[in-house]
Specification:
Layout: H1 12-24, E1 30-36, H2 48-52, E2 57-62, H3 69-81, E3 86-88, H4 100-107, H5 109-117, E4 125-131, H6 137-145, E5 163-167, E6 171-175, H7 187-196, H8 206-220, H9 222-229, H10 240-250, H11 262-274, H12 290-297, H13 301-305
Parallel strand pairs: 1-2, 1-4, 2-3, 4-6
Antiparallel strand pairs: 5-6
Helix pairs in contact: 8-9, 8-10, 8-11, 10-11
Bound molecules: guanosine-5',3'-tetraphosphate.
């Protein structure tokens, strides 16, 4: 595969959300940063440190059911080492959900103690959930609120206003629309976010994206890929275009004349990855640097002969 084309997506409504978040910060006691377990590095908003400043923060790693559990454990250690409180959850099977509010209370223990001294323990805790589009903000709020009060919207880019949701246990929650940042620091970030559905598909070259995803998965998760799409033996070490064509053929997605329908296959692959159907996959481990992915963008033919695909675990 050749160089990674930069993906950027920062529409006007996100600039508005960014301002709204700044204004809303003073209304809350804690910021909950929701990130995607499959791409924990890319799904962290680099602007958040600047905004949140001294405000207490909790990282919630969502979609753990779709990620490699060993890698998620490594991320939890990574956050612990950095003294950043973090919990891992998934909104599909509700694993870990019960730990969220206790973790919020733990982070806010000093504030709660102060309130208690002043006889104000009844005051609700106010938290704001921030995260990229499609990371699961509405799902988490619905799960915590045990209702369908927050609208779950599956398309990134749909603007939603600021809304408060009262949870039963004295916690008020402020939902923010999904937000990205004006420029991804590295093309890898844009690509990983696009894989997960955080970037509007209309601005993406879906075929290219699916080829890239297949190429990367074929290195670290070949067996899952081969199982899902019934890939043939020659798919080991195959490039992205070859893999996408094979997926199209195996799924019977053919154009008149028998050529593989790459467009349909691309949509299928991306949908299935986003829906966790290919298997439990983590694209980023704490020890991975963006350099690792860059090397993978332009494979060195001499290395290829020795079988690149062996290293790394995410
Ligand atoms: P957002 O508010 O941050 O934009 O995200 P939202 O909750 O709308 O979730 C986006 C998609 O991610 C939804 O899938 C949702 O079901 C899925 N999702 C949320 N949390 C989890 C999780 O922990 N694990 C997994 N595997 N998926 C999760 P969808 O296909 O767009 O809709 P649907 O499947 O709910 O119909």
């Amino acid at each position: 595969m050749n160089d990674i084309p930069p993906i950027q997506w920062f529409p006007g409504h996100m600039a508005k959300t960014r301002r709204l978040m700044g204004e809303s910060l003073k209304l809350v006691d804690i910021v909950v940063e929701l990130i995607d377990a499959r791409v924990p590095r890319s799904s962290r908003n680099p602007e958040l440190d600047k905004w949140v400043k001294g405000k207490p923060r909790l990282v919630v790693i969502n979609k753990c059911d779709a990620a490699d559990s060993n890698v998620t454990q490594k991320w939890l250690h990574w956050f612990e080492e950095k003294n950043i409180p973090a919990v891992a959850v998934d909104c599909k099977t509700k694993q870990g959900i019960k730990s969220v509010i206790p973790a919020v209370r733990k982070v806010l223990a000093p504030e709660l103690a102060k309130r208690s001294e002043k006889g104000m323990s009844g005051k609700p805790l106010r938290m704001m959930i921030v995260g990229i589009p499609n990371v699961g903000k509405s799902s988490l709020i619905n799960t915590l609120a045990k209702s369908k009060r927050a609208k779950v919207e599956d398309r990134p880019g749909v603007t939603r206003g600021r809304q408060w949701v009262s949870l039963e246990n004295g916690v008020d929650l402020l939902d923010m629309p999904g937000v990205l940042w004006p420029k991804f620091e590295d093309p890898i970030v844009g690509e990983h976010l696009a894989f997960t559905g955080a970037v509007k598909d209309d601005v993406l070259d879906m075929e290219w994206l699916a080829m890239r995803l297949l190429f990367l998965l074929n290195m670290d998760y070949h067996n899952l890929l081969a199982q899902r799409y019934g890939l043939e033996e020659d798919s080991i070490g195959m490039d992205g275009p070859g893999l996408l064509a094979q997926v199209a053929r195996r799924r019977g997605m053919l154009l008149p004349g028998g050529l593989p329908n790459l467009e349909r296959a691309a949509v299928t692959v991306l949908d299935e990855f986003r829906g966790g159907k290919i298997g439990r996959i983590s694209l980023e481990a704490p020890e991975d640097t963006f350099a690792k992915f860059k090397e993978r963008a332009i494979p060195d033919p001499t290395q290829e002969e020795q079988g690149t695909g062996e290293e790394g675990d995410a």
